[in-house]
UniProtKB/TrEMBL annotation:
Protein name: Osmoprotectant transport system ATP-binding protein
Originating organism: Promicromonospora iranensis
Residue span, ABC transporter domain: 7-243
Keywords on record: ATP-binding, CBS domain, Nucleotide-binding, Transport
Domain CBS: 269-328
Biased composition (Low complexity): 330-342
UniProt keyword ATP-binding, yes or no: yes
Length: 353
């Protein structure tokens, strides 16, 4: 089945008055419910691309369609109410409470108090900041991470079908950033909103993105594919340079232990070491094998859903699994989607957060 396209950019170009061409002939399609991570080096046109979707920036030429409708002919205010927007440092109104901040768009739409209050409570619950503790606070009474989550709640207030996020976790320290990414992956699973996420961080893109679009200078699309396909088969030297080192460890975090990677359970030395689950991330399997005592002969048992041992795994098996995942990513439908086009549905995967 082919996923529905929600946002489509057709040969979009943006030249600023200064003569700077931020985006040149960019075509890409964003599928319903996916997180498309837009990555690339500083100044390659990521933010400009995002801001053209909600008309904070007007394209010089080309078309941008939202559910098949040309956004350049839509009323910009009405358009922005249908598209949530989250930026670094959030931009909460400092003199308004959390509740009032989240209620901004519902108030503009004339929602009554009861409906608005119920929605605020629901959203605060969703982002893990219960209304009883947080609704009446002011932004300066929150940590940076809490403000960021309020920004997400505010952007989701009227349940927009599309969410644009520009470096949403950029302002928080790396450890908490990881936590917010995990939280956001959960929120996304619950809401199913279609998301374009701008980030310069390939790890964030690989963790959160269903697909990654890699741009190079001048808003040129180098590759659009699943995280595994981008890591295993970079489409150009520019993509390779952008990804840098560490692809193998990133791929370990994305690929899973599958039945095809297992050897017989007969070779497991007794007493059996703690098992790894079928479907676990290869990173977890790798750590389990690395932590084995010498007596285990480098082999961990693997259990299925019911907890029964279904086979065993060694370091060689993990390498084989990594190769299989890389090959599958290269052969998958997304691999053909090197530049533009509307690829077929990718197989669903659990976020690697
Ligand atoms: N309002 C503007 N006027 C003139 N040039 C601009 C304007 N906004 C962006 N640019 C230029 O367009 C190019 C793309 O900028 P953009 O902010 O979209 O890049 P980016 O990939 O989001 O960068 P970063 O990762 O550093 O935020 C840059 O060369 C930038 O200087």
């Amino acid at each position: 089945m082919t996923a529905r396209t929600v946002i489509e950019l057709e040969s979009v170009r943006k030249a600023f008055g200064t003569g700077a061409v931020a985006v040149e002939g960019l075509s890409l399609a964003v599928r319903e419910h996916e997180i498309l991570a837009l990555v690339g080096p500083s100044g390659c046109g990521k933010s400009t691309t995002l801001r053209m979707v909600n008309r904070l920036v007007e394209p010089t030429s080309g078309r941008i369609l939202l559910n098949g409708e040309d956004v350049t002919t839509a009323d910009p205010v009405a358009l922005r109410r249908r598209i949530g927007y989250v930026i670094q440092n959030v931009g909460l109104f400092p003199h308004r409470t959390v509740e009032a901040n989240i209620s901004t768009v519902p108030a503009l739409l004339g929602w009554d108090r009861r409906r608005t209050r119920a929605r605020v409570a629901e959203l605060l619950e969703l982002v893990g900041l219960p209304a009883a503790n947080f609704a009446k606070r002011y932004p300066h009474e929150l940590s940076g991470g809490e403000r960021q989550r309020i920004g997400v709640a505010r952007a989701l207030a009227t349940d927009p079908p599309v969410l644009l996020m520009d470096e949403p976790f950029g302002a928080v320290d790396p450890e908490f950033r990881r936590h917010l990414q995990t939280e956001f992956a959960r929120i996304h699973r619950e809401t199913g909103t279609t998301v374009i996420l701008v980030t310069h961080d390939i790890d964030e893109a690989a963790r959160l993105g269903d697909r990654i679009a890699v741009l190079s200078r001048g808003g040129t699309l180098e590759q659009i594919a699943s995280p595994l396909a981008v890591l295993a088969h970079p489409a150009s030297d520019r993509v390779r340079d952008f990804i840098g080192d560490g692809s193998a460890s990133r791929m370990l975090a994305l690929a899973q232990v599958q039945a095809a990677d297992l050897e017989s359970a007969d070779h497991i030395v007794q007493p059996a070491p703690a098992p790894v689950r079928l479907g676990a991330r290869l990173t977890d399997a790798f750590e389990a094998v690395a932590a084995l005592p010498g007596s285990a002969m480098g082999r961990v048992p693997v259990v299925g859903k019911s907890g029964d041992v279904v086979g065993s795994l060694t370091a060689d098996g993990i390498l084989g699994a990594l190769r299989r995942a890389a090959d599958a990513a290269g052969a998958g439908p997304d691999a053909q989607d090197a530049v533009g086009g509307v690829p077929e549905d990718a197989p669903g995967r659990e976020p690697a957060v």
